[in-house]
Design brief:
Layout: H1 4-11, E1 14-15, E2 22-23, H2 33-38, E3 44-50, H3 59-70, E4 76-79, E5 95-103, E6 106-114, H4 117-123, H5 149-169, H6 174-190, E7 198-203, H7 205-218, H8 225-236, E8 237-243, H9 247-250, H10 271-280, E9 288-294, H11 306-309, E10 314-320, E11 326-327, E12 331-332, H12 334-339, H13 345-353
Parallel strand pairs: 3-6, 3-7, 7-8, 8-9, 9-10
Antiparallel strand pairs: 1-11, 2-10, 4-5, 5-6, 11-12
């Protein structure tokens, strides 16, 4: 079995058209994690990390955080005190995986929110259809029919394991998932310093789940812990990194189709837009930069229209990347295109060191 790079060489048609990354705006400028660590006045800058669709566990944070730290000169990563939101009587819990990255410029405290357990039980109903069993489906009866190899790979992963997360969230489980995410967000935010800079790095559907939850929290009674912490988080946020954006797609489920005689429907404000509007009303909120990473060959990802999110105090930048090779200009593996943003060295370097590259990274 040939390795992908050898296969590319044999075909003489393997390319990564967005390597190096392409900046949609030539004037793109944003700080990196190391800059925010340097601005934390001897304390730690906070980084909230949220995964996207597909089954994940704590090992995901164990891969992504060191990858992001790798670009930071002499950085070291260590697990923080173990933490997890207690399982509730009404369902599974969102797990919290904390870690600390020490850089020459200061510390970064990561809290990774692993929400995948919320959908595990429902997704197991599709285990019978997997040709190659995932960790979630270990021990289930084998699939009795023959599939083409690539069809089997994509059916097992993207269709049977990943897509169901979005379908589950858009259905009857939506409120329960938000409430479980709320528990985790409350626990994490309550342990942060109110004046520390905050970075949010979210992937795929994880962005929408997080923003929907934060918006829900801001709508709780004024002065409540949930409303206060959510507002503080939006005010403290300096950098918002979104990869594999699905908000333009998933937000369609929250809109009514226009009548046949009516003008084209005007998109309603999604949860991120509403949060950014609330942020603009907060006193002394520092500038916020939103950076959206998109692989043009990612079938499940969309760039963010800057006109929908950019405003006073908020700058939006789209960056195009290649997460895997494109074969003969015809195909990039759909699973790698969607899942490999935060392990893409180009993406990691930009998140860690900013644009242009921070002098602290040299």
């Amino acid at each position: 079995m040939f390795r992908p790079l050898m296969f590319c060489w044999l075909l003489a048609g393997c390319s990564m058209p967005c390597r190096p990354p392409q900046l949609a705006d030539a004037h793109t400028t944003f700080p990196g994690l190391i800059d925010l660590a340097a601005q934390a006045n001897g304390h730690a800058a906070d980084v909230l990390l949220v995964h996207g669709i597909c089954t994940h566990d704590a090992s995901w944070a164990g891969v992504v955080v060191p990858q992001l730290a790798q670009a930071l000169r002499d950085a070291t990563t260590a697990p923080a005190a173990a933490a997890a939101v207690p399982a509730s009587a009404t369902g599974a819990a969102v797990h919290i995986v904390p870690s600390v990255v020490a850089t020459p410029a200061g510390q970064l405290r990561f809290d990774a929110l692993i929400w995948s357990p919320l959908t595990d039980d429902l997704k197991r109903q599709l285990c019978y259809d997997q040709s190659g069993k995932s960790s979630l489906c270990t021990g289930t009866p084998p699939y009795p029919y023959t599939r083409a190899r690539l069809n089997a790979r994509f059916k097992d992963g993207l269709i049977d394991d990943c897509l169901p997360d979005a379908l589950i969230y858009q259905g009857a489980a939506r409120e329960t998932m938000q409430l479980r995410m709320r528990e985790a967000v409350l626990q994490v935010l309550s342990g942060m310093r109110p004046e520390a800079p905050l970075v949010v790095i979210s992937h795929s559907m994880g962005s929408k789940l997080l923003f929907d939850t934060l918006l829900r929290m801001t709508q709780e009674p004024a002065g409540s812990m949930a409303a206060t912490l959510a507002q503080q988080a939006m005010q403290r946020m300096r950098l918002l990194i979104m990869a594999a954006n699905q908000i333009p797609l998933l937000s369609l489920a929250e809109q009514q189709p226009a009548a046949s005689t009516a003008p084209a429907a005007v998109p309603g404000a999604d949860s991120l837009q509403q949060l950014l509007r609330q942020r603009r009303a907060l006193a002394a909120a520092p500038p916020l930069t939103l950076v959206a990473f998109t692989d043009p060959n990612d079938l499940l990802s969309y760039t963010l229209p800057p006109e929908r999110y950019a405003a006073q105090g908020v700058t939006v930048h789209n960056i195009l990347v290649s997460n895997a090779p494109t074969y003969l200009g015809l195909l990039e593996r759909p699973d790698l295109a969607h899942l490999d943003y935060l392990t893409n060295p180009d993406v990691g370097r930009l998140i860690a060191c900013g644009q242009p590259t921070s002098k602290l990274c040299k």
